[in-house]
């Protein structure tokens, strides 16, 4: 079936003629144990302008469709026409979705370890129509009630929790109470023989679910997950003036799932985030951020929903901002800002300086276009400008404005105008200049420092000339022995290309944006560059060191610093940094700079430098697991690998890293891989084994890994692990054919939806064995025939690779 993407114009027209009263959805999952069929009967009650004509979305196979007692014709292009509507209407559509392996909206996953079957749905942005008939647009909210018939041994989880359960024949029926009014992308049904852990916290009934083969990992992490969930619910209730209004709050970890999804009251996750080993601090930091991001959506996105996808940025950026806000204020992860600076914010800075740059808020003519802006501009840049807005109006004022916003618009739809109006009323400030400058203009400002006869000057250059209005901190740091101590700081309100900086004493380094309150790349002056690049470890705090690392990395990506300088600065910081959620990403950046950005002539020396830093960390017990992984990934031969093996002992995770590096160095030990796969209790150990083989320079191994990713034998999210192992340095000869093969598969990378489109484009894009001319060809090929989501992801990834290629020539 050819499927049309809903346009904004069509959505406005449809919303003008109807309002949805309720969805009652009956599902039969009993056929999924042995087959692919997902059966649904959707009963939709809605009001309409009498006599109006419109359509309902339905991309599943329709077995019957009846409107007010009258059968309807078959759908065309994923739509069933509805004509001659009454004031009150009832539509009943029976459907079956038969492609539950590679299709959209509904997925049947089989655990390879015990062959148990699990079923999940996920619908953002418009994939509910693949599961059942609905008016699939965000501003037609309605309560959803589910009745699910499932095999006896299964547990069914949905949004509203606390179902009524009855035995029927050889199955079991689960009946869920209607939800509050939700957009169609927000309901969920998951089912299977889950293990379950529950806890009562402050009047909320919290649940965790995972497949049976991950019971040990789920139970190991449950206390921490419940603690984080409790902290997040309390924080957001206080800051938003509204407690989460439902007793149950469930989180379900699923096989073959991509990322995480904020379904109301029932968050779904990729179960790859349940680490098979004891999680490191940085892995817990990621877990915390994602958990709080999805939780923030309960208010911003679910209770109050954007009217159309042109405010998708606000939905996602707000959740990304709020998760870091909550992590810093309410959890043990108080260094979230520094972690973000050496992680996602770097991706946003790079994206905003190349062809992937776009205004944070932009027109979205169709839902297909919405898929293309789940990117680094929408998420980390959007979060950064919202953080700046909170600093601009004040945190308490910001909370007061948000509380008023949720109180006024709960269970409805809004636009950016509504949010800005609430914050303007709370603050008494005109926020329209901020809106125009930060949201409607693409590109990132460059801020710098000049010292002259007329004093200290902050320079500012916008992407198109004049910089954005913003408030930025500047810290002055003076050498005191081997350290740099802060001798003064000030806040500068940028309103032009040159702004005098008052009140700071003479210093060896003036660090712009030292408190990370704005979104702008920065540069030191000539004297400051020597300090910033040569001895960033001397800076006094984790945040200032992270600001320095972000500056050095941006200099690397812009061709103003070499990979050797970047590795030197990062490993210098690793001599002193103790915050493990910052140590681990900095170690990762050093490794990436050495292996992917450095010229071949110095790669080995830089890898050795990273190895020295990793050894020092391991000996000190700081981020020991991450340090030993880095030692394995930089091993230069048998002696190095033997040393890591000795340190690893019975640690299966580290043993996989050792085998992976052996394979990369040309010594693929197939028997050792098979033996470790058999010993590893991880149900996805086969993916670790494939990852090892993917790193080998063997043509046969490359073919196996490529085929597994392209043919989706490997879940799309797992391709993010296999792909980096596939594209390794020093293997250009065997990798060369895959540049052309990437172009061949480009038109179908989005098959199965947005998540595969994003994951596969990023993972399969060549990192070696290509040149700048090939990158231009890839962009042209994408523009000519790829889906918008693939075009967006490829544009962002290709810019990073292009800059790598240039750095390798320095």
TrEMBL record:
<dbReference type="InterPro" id="IPR001930">
    <property type="entry name" value="Peptidase_M1"/>
</dbReference>
<keyword id="KW-0645">Protease</keyword>
<dbReference type="GO" id="GO:0042277">
    <property type="term" value="F:peptide binding"/>
</dbReference>
<keyword id="KW-0031">Aminopeptidase</keyword>
<dbReference type="InterPro" id="IPR045357">
    <property type="entry name" value="Aminopeptidase_N-like_N"/>
</dbReference>
<dbReference type="GO" id="GO:0005615">
    <property type="term" value="C:extracellular space"/>
</dbReference>
<dbReference type="GO" id="GO:0016285">
    <property type="term" value="F:alanyl aminopeptidase activity"/>
</dbReference>
<dbReference type="InterPro" id="IPR012778">
    <property type="entry name" value="Pept_M1_aminopeptidase"/>
</dbReference>
<feature type="domain" description="ERAP1-like C-terminal">
    <location>
        <begin position="509"/>
        <end position="773"/>
    </location>
</feature>
<dbReference type="GO" id="GO:0005737">
    <property type="term" value="C:cytoplasm"/>
</dbReference>
<dbReference type="GO" id="GO:0008270">
    <property type="term" value="F:zinc ion binding"/>
</dbReference>
<dbReference type="GO" id="GO:0070006">
    <property type="term" value="F:metalloaminopeptidase activity"/>
</dbReference>
<keyword id="KW-0479">Metal-binding</keyword>
<dbReference type="InterPro" id="IPR024571">
    <property type="entry name" value="ERAP1-like_C_dom"/>
</dbReference>
<dbReference type="InterPro" id="IPR050344">
    <property type="entry name" value="Peptidase_M1_aminopeptidases"/>
</dbReference>
<keyword id="KW-0378">Hydrolase</keyword>
<dbReference type="Pfam" id="PF11838">
    <property type="entry name" value="ERAP1_C"/>
</dbReference>
<dbReference type="InterPro" id="IPR027268">
    <property type="entry name" value="Peptidase_M4/M1_CTD_sf"/>
</dbReference>
<comment type="similarity">
    <text>Belongs to the peptidase M1 family.</text>
</comment>
<keyword id="KW-0482">Metalloprotease</keyword>
<dbReference type="GO" id="GO:0043171">
    <property type="term" value="P:peptide catabolic process"/>
</dbReference>
<feature type="domain" description="Aminopeptidase N-like N-terminal">
    <location>
        <begin position="115"/>
        <end position="185"/>
    </location>
</feature>
<protein>
    <recommendedName>
        <fullName>Aminopeptidase N</fullName>
        <ecNumber>3.4.11.2</ecNumber>
    </recommendedName>
</protein>
<dbReference type="InterPro" id="IPR042097">
    <property type="entry name" value="Aminopeptidase_N-like_N_sf"/>
</dbReference>
<dbReference type="Pfam" id="PF17900">
    <property type="entry name" value="Peptidase_M1_N"/>
</dbReference>
<dbReference type="GO" id="GO:0016020">
    <property type="term" value="C:membrane"/>
</dbReference>
<dbReference type="InterPro" id="IPR014782">
    <property type="entry name" value="Peptidase_M1_dom"/>
</dbReference>
<dbReference type="Pfam" id="PF01433">
    <property type="entry name" value="Peptidase_M1"/>
</dbReference>
<dbReference type="GO" id="GO:0006508">
    <property type="term" value="P:proteolysis"/>
</dbReference>
<keyword id="KW-0862">Zinc</keyword>
<feature type="domain" description="Peptidase M1 membrane alanine aminopeptidase">
    <location>
        <begin position="229"/>
        <end position="432"/>
    </location>
</feature>
